[in-house]
Amino acid sequence: MNIFQEIQTQVQQAFPALFGSEVELNKITINETPKDFIGDITLVVFPLLKLTKKNPEESAKTIGEFLVNNNKNITAYNIIKGFLNIEIYNDYWINYVLNQESGILNPKSETVLIEYASPNTNKPIHLGHVRNNVLGYALAGIYKANGYNVIKANLTNDRGIHICKSMVAWQQFGNGETPENTTDLKCRKGDHLVGKYYVEFDKHYKQQIADLIEQGKTKEEAEKQAPILLAAQEMLLKWENGDEETIALWKKMNAWVYAGFDITYKNLGVDFDKFYYESNTYLLGKNSVEDGLQKGVFFKKEDGSVWIDLTEDGLDQKLVLRADGTSVYITQDIGTADLKYDDFKMDQSIYVVGNEQDYHFKVLKLIMQKLGRPYADGIHHFSYGMVDLPSGKMKSREGTVVDADDLIADMINIAKEQTEALGKIDDFTEDEKTALFRTIGLGALKFFLLRVDPKKRILFDPKESIDLHGFTGPFVQYTYARTRSILRKAENIISHDSQFMTQDYQLHASEKELIKVLYKYSIVLEESCKEMNPAKLIDYSYEVAKTYNKFYNDCPILVAETEEQKKIRLHLTQQTGSTIKKCFAIVGIDVPERM
RNA sequence: GGCCGCGUAGCUCAGGGGAUAGAGCAACUGCCUUCUAAGCAGUCGGUCGCACGUUCGAUUCGUGCCGCGGUCACCA
After folding, report:
1. pTM over cut 0.80
2. Fewer CB within a 10 Å sphere, N or C end of chain A?
3. Is residue A402 a contact partner of residue A462, using CB atoms and an 8 Å limit?
């Protein structure tokens, strides 16, 4: 229990004795004291006045007196209007911070399955997918750090009409181009090769539509009759019937894509515990539809199609099985949800998917609840905003995307240029340099994507490169490198006695500020999990770095005035470094020893 | 049109019933013979989209309106 909760509970328990009535815990508002007031913690008494039956000053005084007399960590209080400002002994903060060790909060027995990435195998990964990957990985890290048992799952969308489109285009216009024999350097990476034919398909499709309209067809007719589309549809049928040639082509092209994805995942530093493939799961869910029909959750229309009526839940009727008995998107998701539960018996199932699918996941959760699945209440759609360009939405089909591989390369390049300009690492080996540029470039990129509230959309202007100064990943990384530099220079610093402080040690204002920031680590970690918001942790890492830099400017460390002061400052330096490292490790950002 | 999300400084974003609304970028001013200046300190910049309501107190909660985005497929 942290000091905020401790005081809150203490006041609640003493309340009847002090004022003769009970009080709810959430009525007791505890905040950090704003900078310009004296005190560490502030209790707002206004909400309590009805219960205390006294004016604000008297109520505050009663509580203040009680706390000073009954909590050994509290040294004094002052009252300004209805605010009770409480001062805490320095020892309390210091001892807590210096002894804070573990990075993982109390282990829990719950299992959380987090599905993210979930790419289509017809095109390379773009910036929107990068946001998904980075958010999913960070969220998983946060759950882990909060003591949950976490499974990272990737549901690869490897079949369907869109996959057949690239296949058809490659067949018709590919001339046998492969990642091995291609002259297009970019297409050596297989996902780009396949993506090229996805774009190619769209080009020809549009041209054919135009031609058909020229020949007198209506737009609707033309869109349905374009030969290349018919070819894709025919290929899908062949695929579903297990046609050997088609399956072989599908396997070949998917293998190219997977090889490419592996490289990008590795570059992004994300990983998965379990891969699901839609080609294996797309037939699942039909049994559940049968089950739902018997339970009366679903109903059958005259044409044989199966529906669910969600009008009572404020939604519409939704198709779950076509009249010809084939499944739709949601049918597969029903089946896959069950499959995940069979595999992992998860308590929570989180889907990291863009907010354009809010409606779909609302429906999915309702269906699972109505089917009475034990994990249904634990389904959660982690909905995040799109990454838009100044020109609008990114569309792979039309080639208007910020490619992930390009962007990563750009970021590393920017890191390289700026680092070399500073000339601090001229003694690095080539390997060390490469590693550092990658750490900084990816740090900047991931921080940029994570610092924004997930549900907000991000506008990305490719013309403006991602910054390396200010509220950025490299700023925090730089601070970490600073702490490392100090610690390298200090010799036999970290004595393991943590009680070395004398009672009357006077904390410098910047020391105290830093200590109080470091104190909040586990509070923030817990909050970022509860609110499912990696930005909280990112924001905090910045606050730590910012506060340390101020401390660094104000307080000499290695040349401190006394040995005691030096020890404390080195400890704070060490704690700052480890806190930054922990935060960044959780969300998947590396940290350099020097930069 | 129905439903969902968003609207805070010139720009990008924090805050989320409580005291004087905070950062970064941009612009301007100082600080490297001292532990990494990718830093620190400062100046400039706000009717928290608009209106009404609830409250001791609203930028925060509610309702309505306006603006932007998404969605309402037998696509995924």
Report:
1. yes
2. N
3. yes
